[in-house]
Specification:
With 268 residues, the chain is mostly helical. It folds into two domains: 78 residues, Arc Repressor Mutant, subunit A; 145 residues, GntR ligand-binding domain-like (Four Helix Bundle (Hemerythrin (Met), subunit A), Up-down Bundle). The chain has twelve helices and two strands, in the order ααααββαααααααα. Strands 1-2 form a two-stranded antiparallel ribbon. A hairpin with a 5-residue loop joins strand 1 and strand 2. It is globular and about 55 Å long.
Length: 268
């Protein structure tokens, strides 16, 4: 669980998923499992866990870390974590299993797409466009810096990782796509921008699922990101920033179109 606290590093390998055995957490969990510190209230821990589940960063059937590990990661007392888990269990998002392989597990019916649809139905167009503007401003600034600062070999490793995910399942591809976006921003060599990107990516990722729910939609997102990485690799900050802004604008437009074409009852 300590790895949830570490800064993102560029790693070319994509790890396979296992919902029962311990696994290496993907980078967006680092944005959700940050220390709460002096504000260590059960409500805040509960909110972080709910966000992780509803945004798909903790998957259906996945085992949560032990209470002691969660307490250490959040920087709170174990009794606070226990209280938060009880509240999340009351929402029906986790279940407790007894026995040798027991623990707290994400409920089997936890569906990130359903949560994202419900959130979209509650979100105004103004809020969507504001979220897009924030995401585009941070991401475009970071990739422009990356185009000026990144070593070509580092950029190539990120590009190679993205181009090598064709054999993975869709859910694994989505996780790699999120991680690669954070890795690309980390090439800006700005720790502040990278931390902010991790937070924004955790918020934005569920909406990317909505506009790319199938293999075809995901392939379009991968193509857009490949073009951005190629612009960074060629040292063209203007093209990298422009392509980022276009990619985000396309996502926001697709979300608004989805809102307009889908009855509220169907979205929620």
């Amino acid at each position: 669980m300590d790895s949830l606290m570490s800064s993102p590093q560029v790693r070319p390998d994509a790890r396979s998923a296992d919902t029962t055995a311990p696994r290496q957490p993907h980078r967006l969990q680092g944005a959700l499992f940050q220390p709460i510190g002096d504000e260590g209230r059960a409500e805040l821990v509960e909110r972080r866990l709910v966000d992780a589940i509803q945004r798909g960063h903790l998957r259906a059937g996945e085992r949560l870390p032990a209470e002691s590990e969660l307490a250490r990661s959040f920087g709170v007392a174990p009794v606070t974590v226990r209280e938060a888990l009880l509240a999340v269990r009351g929402r029906g998002l986790i279940v407790t299993r007894r026995g040798r392989n027991g623990g707290s597990f994400v409920a089997d019916d936890a569906d990130p797409l359903a949560f994202a649809r419900a959130e979209l139905s509650r979100t105004s167009r103004i809020t969507l466009r504001d979220m897009g503007a924030h995401y585009a401003a941070i991401t475009a600034a970071a990739v422009r810096l990356a185009a000026r600062r990144a070593d070509a070999s580092e950029t190539h490793r990120v590009l190679h990782r993205l181009q090598s995910i064709g054999d993975l399942e869709l859910e694994q591809q989505r996780r790699v796509l999120d991680d690669v976006q954070v890795e690309l921003v980390s090439l800006s060599q700005s720790a502040r921008l990278t931390r902010e990107q991790m937070r924004l990516q955790a918020e934005f990722s569920p909406y990317l699922r909505l506009v790319g729910p199938d293999a075809e939609g995901l392939a379009r997102q991968i193509t857009s990101l490949v073009q951005i990485i190629e612009a960074v690799e060629s040292g063209d900050p203007d093209d990298a920033g422009r392509r980022t802004e276009i990619m985000v604008a396309d996502v926001i437009d697709a979300l608004i179109q989805l809102q307009s074409s889908t009855p509220v009852s169907a979205i929620s």
